[in-house]
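Hello forum,

I keep getting stuck at the same step: I have a sequence, I want structure tokens, and every attempt I make locally crashes halfway through. Rather than fight my setup again tonight, could one of you with a working pipeline run this one for me? It's a single chain of 75 residues.
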Amino acid sequence: FKLVRSMWQYRDLQEALGFYGAYHQDPVNQAIHFVFVPALLWSFLVGFAHFPLLGKELSVAGHRLTYSTLIFFAY
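Reply #2:
Ran it on my machine without issues. Output:
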């Protein structure tokens, strides 16, 4: 939570983005993001694949439309 607290101390967006950019130059931080951001996205897509879009069983070309479909194409 130290990161979140430190981000609120900045006066404007430019100062906050400078901190964000410096923080993400760390190779360890970049490696963590490289591995875990796609893993988190995949996990959410698997979870949302079980919820039909708009609560209806819709399909296109044999593919069931779910919230994962919507998130996938939005991304």
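Residues 2-74 form one domain. If your local run keeps crashing, start a new thread with the error log.
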